[in-house]
Design a protein that fits this description.
The complex is a heterotrimer of chains A (about 600), B (about 300) and C (about 325).
Chain A: H1 2-32, E1 105-110, H2 124-128, E2 136-138, E3 145-147, E4 150-157, E5 160-165, H3 179-192, H4 194-200, E6 202-209, E7 212-217, H5 224-227, H6 238-244, H7 249-252, E8 259-265, E9 269-274, E10 287-292, H8 296-304, E11 310-312, H9 316-324, E12 328-332, E13 338-344, H10 354-363, H11 366-373, H12 403-412, E14 425-426, E15 429-430, E16 432-437, H13 443-457, E17 461-466, E18 479-485, H14 492-500, H15 520-527, H16 535-551, E19 555-561, E20 564-568, E21 571-572, E22 589-590
Parallel strand pairs in A: 1-10, 1-11, 16-17, 16-18
Antiparallel strand pairs in A: 2-3, 4-5, 5-7, 6-7, 8-9, 9-10, 11-20, 12-20, 13-18, 13-19, 14-15, 21-22
Chain B: H1 4-7, H2 20-32, H3 34-52, H4 88-124, H5 126-140, H6 144-155, H7 159-186, H8 189-196, H9 201-237, H10 249-255, H11 265-291, H12 294-300
Helix pairs in contact in B: 3-4, 3-11, 4-5, 4-7, 4-9, 5-7, 6-7, 7-9, 9-10, 9-11, 10-11
Chain C: H1 2-28, H2 34-42, H3 50-60, H4 66-78, H5 92-127, H6 132-146, H7 149-163, H8 175-205, H9 208-215, H10 220-258, H11 263-272, H12 276-304
Helix pairs in contact in C: 1-12, 2-3, 5-6, 5-8, 5-10, 6-8, 7-8, 7-10, 8-10, 9-10, 10-11, 11-12
Classes of the chains: A alpha+beta (about 600), B mainly alpha (about 300), C mainly alpha (about 325).
Chain lengths: ~600, ~300, ~325
């Protein structure tokens, strides 16, 4: 009897739950879903000179007028498809441009589709997917800023930059990008993004003529073009974005890139159609469909199964399997743009002794660890903190793997194994260090585990602490693994300064120093760069700074993480950029 | 139901025990069933592996050798090495220890709560009973793995947090069953007699009722442990359970994912270990259940 | 009856309040500063400045005392606003609603698949008790209930998606994409149901009325189809509730492996990134549904069965 009642009850619960769920869904959707129909602005298919020049011409060399090699923006030529006018969206929300069957849609698997599309809220997704563009973009070879939506930048005086804009650029909603629009865009960025405001330090923006603006900064900003390449500083149609209101950025059509977002479901997918009115030429694709596949292994499998054409960010191991596949290949630009390091905690007793610090550094076989987390033969270990492309410092080298020397140094510091437990001690206190890290970057737990074993070899007891990343601010660790972009703004000094809490040129956005390393010498070196505009000179200063970092063991760089793509051979004109900022440009295509 | 305790070999006071030879016969019957025998063998070997692992001559399961990564099986490494150059066989054996300890701790935690709640609720009744059963009803309808996931998400990843999380949600079903049994026992003549002769509640619960729920607990536990092992391994697989370098099967499986195609045995082996452990406990649990009163079968459903 | 419903309805908000308060407290003591998590998420690879952290704390309302934060959260939740995800900055309620559909689709598909296979297998096994068919089915059920679904999922992907290219490896939307996750998810409940149906068919076949039916000269086919089956399936249908709960749990892992955009994937991601508003909203959402389902069931049972009107249900 009891049993039967229970069964009936369960049965009924199931039924009711089955009914309740869809009702809850319906309610939820009614209340919260954004306005339906996320179709983009219609665009004319400007079947213009299809051999348009790539959007990245000559390099910017600061301290002299920076000029773009005259990239001829494609003038709207004969309209191929009978799409409606490219101006304001009609109330009816017409469908995507009459999809020509000949143009395929590319499917891409990416890790994150997390951050909002509006650049002021981070800007990574829009920049990576070829939707947003900046005044400048980072060079794929040395990360110096190249003209993009800007044509040239001239530093009139240390506080003043004159920037000439590209003509013929239109936002996705059809509005023209002119000097007023750029001014409004930068002002919106500063208004809504505190970090950007702090980094740029703008005093005023003046419109000279339709294609020229003058920017004055509060303090010298010799690296301003690089700072303007940050994803949060992408150029948007501020008026349209503000008019659309929060959460409706997609509907505003406020970006300029070769792909127009049509639907964005965060953490799931991001769809786009080609911007046939793009200033750089008509994209060969009908659009790009991005799928969020957070798991690295699933991403690799999806590529092999043919679910996607491009897998962004695959593992070195996955690259081997993919290269063995007849239809697939791995691609990388060959420059690691994110440094994997350990912070060294100067506030805890264990590593405050320079001898112990050196011993730890010599005891860890970083080259082997680099082999675990970066592709073989990447040589990233020798590059110390910054990739060679950003600052090549032949005179500075990281300590090698010398366990015997490490033991000697420990003995010099007074640490011997007096109780024969296999671990060294001093005054009865064992030397024990904590190696921290956070799990989101697969490299960090592996690094911690490997180092734990290596330190044990020289008699140092180590504990692994894989935890929330913000624990780095608590005095709970001696080494803490960290994964950080080191080509920010394309400036070597800024990317050293941010690790040691010294701002490069008073901009130093979000500079921090979790290891509490302080050195007057280093601060002096870095601040000497404040008004130096010459790239060569800045690199030399960077090398001097790195020398101090290395000799003081201020932090332990391990490797540079490469961005590896898995690509189907049908994909054409795919040119991987080393930075994590630009996955797709207007040239990528797909053979049928 | 009143016979339950005798059948699992617990001697009860004041009630005549069933003759020894018959009891032994039942245990023999248990082992004659090939499935149960297999289950017993699996469980015993697992327990042995877990017990002796730290004193065995196996390689250190956390000893890293980056020059010996992803090696195939060899006399030196019977099942090869993993992505950190650690001995896979040693990690599997030590994994038995981690898995069994975690499952046992979870079981002890959830059974303690379940017995306390079930006994008190069933014996005393009244509003505390109503309130407790409300909570039980509510939690029972929650998918326990999801609830454990939320708890682990709040407390942070780690094997201890996972077993606290699983234990904290697993007890509800058992509490309901133990309460049911307690309710039945409370009305038995011998309990009424004991009460009439002035025995305290405490004495009645501990001396008369508690022994009768031992049998069901054994059966429930053996039927459950398979689920618990799967649940803990699942949470570890998701990265919320055991943390490196702890050898744990779910975490090993998860670690091996990048090598799915190049070294599939690294996924297959811990997968097989989980499978055999769960299979062993399930078989043993089935055998024990068949041996005991069929009423438990109905209640355990 | 009316009084009963009123009493039950009165306890409903209390329970909900309890659950939400506990989940709120739990998440509040969890490590990590949400303000920094948000900032880090917005700008990966950059360290937030102290000024930005302070501003973000104010924006998120984290500078208020804990009880005030809870009251604020609760009053908003009552109005359908469960806050925004730290990670996507999307309303939590909308995300939960969106994610419900794929999870329901997947679990229903898996349950359907499990039933379609388990019913004939269970009946066959019971009718041929002791035979070869019985042995095979019982073995399959044992294997199915002990195999970790994640290992099976990888096997399916490698075989059917990578090697044979018959089916997609990941994703949601088409029927083809549903096949592999549904199979992987259905294995465990299929095994459970098979065993259950086998047992109950055996049970029923031994009953008096079945013997009577046989004595009347009905064919074995008729006996099983007309008499045994209906009664034997009741327990299986009754157990569906519990099995559905297991399925939801299993879906967490399967959704993660197959990149299936359901509630499971949402909660795993939220648990790993400490996206507290999502975890909190999810727990509360599930609690509301469970509570309502419980209540509706009890009332429905009382209406249906007069014997229950004067006693407590579900004991």
């Amino acid at each position: 009897m009891e049993g039967e009642q229970e069964m009936l009850r369960r049965m009924a619960i199931t039924l009711v739950a089955a009914l309740a769920l869809p009702v809850a869904v319906a309610c939820g959707e009614r209340d919260d879903s954004p306005p339906a129909a996320a179709t983009p602005a219609p665009v004319t298919a400007a079947a213009a000179a299809s051999t348009a020049a790539p959007p990245t011409p000559a390099a910017v060399t600061t301290s002299a007028p920076v000029t773009a090699a005259a990239t001829t923006p494609p003038t709207a030529a004969a309209t191929a498809s009978p799409s409606p006018s490219p101006t304001a969206r009609t109330a009816e929300q017409p469908a995507a441009p009459a999809a020509d069957a000949a143009r395929p849609t590319l499917k891409a698997g990416v890790i994150w589709l997390d951050s909002p599309l509006d650049p002021v809220q981070g800007g990574w997704v829009a920049s990576q997917s070829g939707m947003s563009e900046n005044l400048f973009r980072l060079s794929p070879t040395n990360f110096s800023p190249l003209p993009w939506l800007a044509m040239e930048a001239t530093d009139v005086d240390p506080l003043t930059w004159r920037i000439k804009l590209r003509s013929g650029v239109k936002f996705h909603n059809g509005a023209v990008m002119d000097a007023e629009a750029v001014k409004a865009s930068l002002e919106r960025t500063i208004r809504l993004s505190e970090a950007s405001a702090e980094a740029l330090g703008l005093d005023s923006i003046a419109v000279n003529d339709e294609q020229t603006i003058t920017i004055t900064t509060m303090e010298p900003r010799p690296t301003l073009p690089g700072l303007l390449a940050g994803p949060a500083v992408a150029i948007t149609d501020a008026a349209a974005a503000d008019a659309a209101g929060e959460g409706n950025f997609l509907q505003a059509g406020a970006l300029t890139g070769p792909y127009i977002p049509t639907e964005y479901i965060q953490k799931e997918r991001l769809s786009s159609v080609a911007n046939d009115d793009y200033w750089g030429g008509v994209p060969p694709l009908a659009g790009i469909e991005h799928l969020a596949i957070p798991d690295i292994n699933s991403r690799e499998l999806a590529l092999q199964a043919g679910d996607i054409d491009v897998a962004v960010n695959i593992s070195p191991e996955g690259a081997q399997t993919i290269d063995a596949h007849p239809d697939l290949a791995s691609r990388t630009a060959g420059i690691g743009t994110a440094a994997v390091i350990w912070w060294v905690n100067f506030e805890r007793p264990a590593l405050s002794d320079p001898l112990v610090r050196q011993a730890v550094s010599l005891a860890i076989d970083r080259e082997s660890i680099a082999g675990l987390i970066a592709p073989a033969g990447s040589g990233s270990f020798a590059e110390l903190l910054l990739p060679d492309a950003l600052a090549s410092c032949p005179g500075v080298s990281a300590p090698g793997y010398e366990p015997a020397q490490a033991r000697d140094l420990l003995a010099q510091a007074g640490y011997v194994d007096s109780d024969d437990d296999g671990f060294v001690d001093k005054d009865g206190e064992p030397l024990e260090i904590v190696i921290g890290g956070y799990p989101e970057r697969f490299q960090l737990p592996i690094m911690a585990e490997a180092a734990q074993a290596m330190l044990a070899d020289v008699g140092i007891k180590a504990k692994v602490l894989i935890t929330e990343w913000s624990v780095v601010k608590e005095p709970a660790w001696d080494l803490f693994g960290w994964y950080n972009n080191v080509v920010e703004a394309g400036d070597p000094i800024q990317n050293i300064g941010k690790f040691v809490g010294v701002s490069a040129d008073a901009s130093g956005s979000g500079a921090n120093n979790y290891g509490h390393f302080h050195s007057a010498e280093l601060e002096g070196i870095i601040s000497s760069a404040a008004e130096v505009a010459d790239t060569q000179q800045r690199q030399e200063i960077a090398c001097r700074a790195l020398d101090v970092v290395a000799s003081e063991t201020a932090l332990l760089p391990v490797a540079h993480a490469y961005l590896i793509y898995g690509v189907n051979e049908r994909v054409t004109d795919f040119d991987p950029h080393p930075a994590n900022l630009y996955f797709f440009d207007h040239r990528i295509g797909l053979r049928s | 139901m009143t016979m339950t305790a005798e059948r699992v070999g617990v001697r009860l006071p004041r009630r005549p025990a069933i003759a020894e030879p018959r009891r032994r016969g039942r245990w023999h019957a248990l082992l004659r069933e090939p499935g149960t025998a297999l289950g017993l063998i699996l469980v015993v070997s697992l327990l042995l592996a877990g017990l002796v692992a730290p004193w065995s001559p196996l390689a250190d399961p956390t000893e890293i050798n980056l020059r010996e990564r992803l090696r195939s099986p060899s006399p030196e490494h019977l099942l090869g090495t993993d992505h950190m150059g650690r001995d896979t066989f040693s990690r599997l054996v030590h994994g038995a220890r981690a898995t069994l300890l975690a499952a046992a701790a979870t079981l002890v935690l959830s059974m303690t709560i379940a017995v306390t709640v079930g006994l008190l609720s069933g014996y005393y009744g009244g509003w505390p009973d109503t309130a407790l059963m409300w909570v039980v009803d509510l939690l029972l309808a929650f998918p326990s793995l999801i609830l454990a996931l939320a708890v682990a998400g709040a407390l942070g990843p780690g094997l201890l947090n996972v077993l606290l999380a699983v234990g904290a949600v697993w007890w509800v079903g058992h509490a309901r069953i133990i309460r049911g049994i307690t309710l039945g026992e409370r009305e038995m003549a011998y309990v009424t007699a004991a009460r009439a002769s002035g025995a305290s509640d405490r004495r009645i619960i501990l001396r008369h009722i508690a022994p009768n729920i031992l049998g069901p607990i054994v059966v429930l536990a053996s039927l459950d442990i398979g689920w618990i092992i799967l649940g803990i391994a699942g949470l570890s697989f998701l990265g919320l359970g055991a943390q490196p370098p702890t050898p744990e099967w779910g975490a090993m499986l998860s670690d091996a994912r990048p090598h799915l195609q190049t070294a599939p045995h690294l996924i297959l082996l811990p997968g097989a270990a989980i499978f055999l452990a769960v299979l062993g406990f399930n078989l043993l649990g089935d055998g024990l259940r068949d041996l005991l009163d069929p009423r438990i079968r109905r209640l355990a459903r | 009856m009316g009084a009963y419903v009123v009493r039950r309805l009165a306890t409903l908000p209390l329970l909900l309040l309890g659950i939400s308060a506990v989940s709120f407290a739990l998440l509040s003591v969890a490590p990590g500063d949400p303000a920094e998590i948000v900032l880090h998420q917005r700008n990966p690879g950059q360290m937030p400045s102290p000024a930005a952290v302070t501003a973000m704390r104010a924006e998120l309302g984290l500078d208020a005392p804990l009880p005030a934060q809870y009251v604020r959260w609760m009053s908003r939740a009552l109005a359908g606003d469960m806050g925004r995800s730290y990670v996507t900055e999307q309303p939590v309620a909308a995300q939960l609603a969106r994610r419900t559909v794929p999870t329901v689709v997947l679990t229903v598909a898996a349950l359907g698949l499990a039933l379609v296979l388990a019913v004939p297998m269970g009946i066959l096994s019971a009718r041929r008790r002791g035979g070869a068919g019985d042995a095979i089915v019982r073995l399959a059920a044992l294997v199915g209930s002990a195999a970790p679904s994640y290992a099976l999922a990888f096997g399916l992907i490698i075989l059917f998606a990578v090697k044979l290219s018959w089916l997609p490896a990941v994703g949601y939307g088409s029927a083809a994409q549903m096949v592999l996750p549904a199979i992987a998810l259905s294995l465990a409940p299929m095994a459970q149901l098979t065993r259950l149906i086998r047992a109950s068919v055996l049970d029923v076949l031994g009953q008096d009325y079945i013997r009577t039916a046989r004595a009347k000269g009905l064919s074995e086919q008729m006996v099983v189809m007309k008499h045994a089956l209906r009664n034997a399936l009741l327990p299986a249908i009754g157990a569906t509730g519990v099995i559905l709960a297991h399925l939801l749990g299993g879906a967490v892992i399967i959704e993660t492996i197959f990149t299936w955009p359901g509630l499971g994937q949402l909660i795993v991601g939220a648990a790993l990134t400490r996206d507290y508003p999502v975890v909190q909203g999810f727990v509360t959402y599930l609690a509301v549904i469970v509570l309502l389902a419980n209540l509706a069931t009890d009332i429905a049972l009382r209406v249906a069965d007069p014997r229950l009107r004067y006693e407590r249900v579900g004991v």
